[in-house]
Amino acid sequence: MSVIFAITQSHLADPRADLDRQVAEAEERCERQGRFVFELGAGTSPRDYAEHVLRVMEQTLSISRANRALIQQLGTGSP
User: Fold this and answer.
1) pTM
2) Could you state, in order of their start, the residue ranges of all structural domains in the chain?
3) What is the distance between the alpha carbons of residues 35 and 74, in angstroms, rounded to a whole number?
4) At the top level of its lineage, which domain of life is listed (predicted)?
């Protein structure tokens, strides 16, 4: 089994635009998960698990935002 990675023209043109898109998509997923958690009954096992998943998603989003900021700083040369 082989995996082929495709590099899109948009990525070659502006990799920061792809980062912005990825962060925006992750934000949307977190919002959806938050709504899902809200709909579940409080104190139930499914809600506890959904809250755990949301926390992990938010931690990942935070790391993605930090990486995006670092890459933007490296790209512009500003501290």
Assistant:
1) 0.74
2) 45-73
3) 36
4) Bacteria
Total residues found in the chain within this entry: 79
- Contact between 57 and 26 under an 8 Å Cβ cutoff? The reply is yes
Q: 């949301």: which residue's tokens?
A: 54
Residue 50, both tokens:
């959904």
pLDDT, residue 78, reads: 58
> Which residue has tokens 């709504």?
35
Indicate if the alpha-carbon torsion angle 48, 53, 56, 61 is positive or negative.
negative
Asked if residues 26 and 64 have their Cβ atoms less than 8 Å apart, the reply is yes
SS3 74: helix
d(CA 56, CA 50): 10
